[in-house]
Amino acid sequence: MAFDNLLIERDGATAIVTINRPKVLNALNTQTLDELRRAILDLKQDEGVRVVILTGAGEKSFVAGADINELAVQTPTGGREHALAGQQVLDLIENLGKPVIAAINGYALGGGCELAMACTLRIAADTARLGQPEISLGLIPGYAGTQRLPRLVGAGKAMEMILTGAPITADEAHRIGLVNRVVPAGDLMTDARALAAQLGKNAPIAMRYIINAVSKGAEIPFADACQYEATLFGLVASTDDMREGTAAFLDKRKPEFKGR
Ligand code: CO8
User: Fold this and answer.
1) Are the C-beta atoms of residues 74 and 118 closer than 8 Å to each other?
2) Percentage helix, strand, coil for the chain under 3-state DSSP, each rounded to 5
3) For residue 4, what is the DSSP state?
4) Which residues have CB under 6 Å of ligand 1?
5) Is the pTM higher than 0.85?
6) Which single residue of 56, 83, 121, 172 could bond 168 by disulfide (Cβ 3.0 to 4.6 Å)?
7) How does pLDDT run across 164-198, given as a tens digit for each residue?
8) Contact criterion met (CB below 8 Å) for 26 and 4
9) Catalytic residues
């Protein structure tokens, strides 16, 4: 599949998706969001892909937000449609059923921070800056930032970030739980690839259920979420990979998971 604004690379069972508009710090215009939607759907179908890394081209920026050229001319109904379309792409990422690692190589602002939050895990370069600066444009977040940020860092810190619009450092993002780890900028992709390779050895169906249980479970009452977890546990108990994983432990050997 050919894209104007994305680069797709394969490294074993890892697919690396790079948002490639470095002249505008990888800002998300309509075309890029649409390409991202198509790429994610494609990766979902591809059984050879077990983990995805999402990053931005260049050294300066992951994604510096929605494209402000488009925001400047949006209409009220168009704005709502654009927000919903972006939210759907981010939902696809969150529910891909395979871990998506955001390798945050610089600015992750506005829609860029929202994109990173839709990923399963986040690794930040020590040079990265994260924030929701929409307020400085007379806007509010539109790709579910008002919802995912408080779920990740708590309502108080989310309110502060969204109301002030001030970006935070990678270290601060790590301290408040917005990113999983911070690494020297030069090590970012090596670290992300190593984590992806580690996850890529896991049983794919079990990973899919874990992502699903954590993300859906947060939206429903605790008792219902526990029932849901138990149902998924029953389903995973029917897989060849469960038999392989438990047998490998008892045989004192490494398991080989096939996704069956
Ligand atoms: N959109 C379009 N172009 C951008 C964007 C952007 N978000 N960010 C940077 N650029 C462009 C600049 O205009 C500049 O272009 P040019 O070279 O032609 O002048 C180029 O990228 C380089 O940027 P700067 O010269 O500004 O680089 P600096 O190092 O001086 O500053 C910053 C870097 C701090 C990241 C600065 O570029 C900046 O503040 N960018 C905007 C960040 C921002 O406000 N992002 C939030 C946008 S709103 C949003 O994301 C809402 C999401 C939900 C939308 C839902 C409905 C669609």
Assistant:
1) no
2) 50, 15, 30
3) S
4) 24-25, 27, 64-69, 71, 79, 82-83, 86, 107, 109-111, 133-134, 137, 139, 141-143
5) yes
6) 172
7) 999 999 999 999 999 999 999 999 999 999 999 99
8) no
9) 114, 134
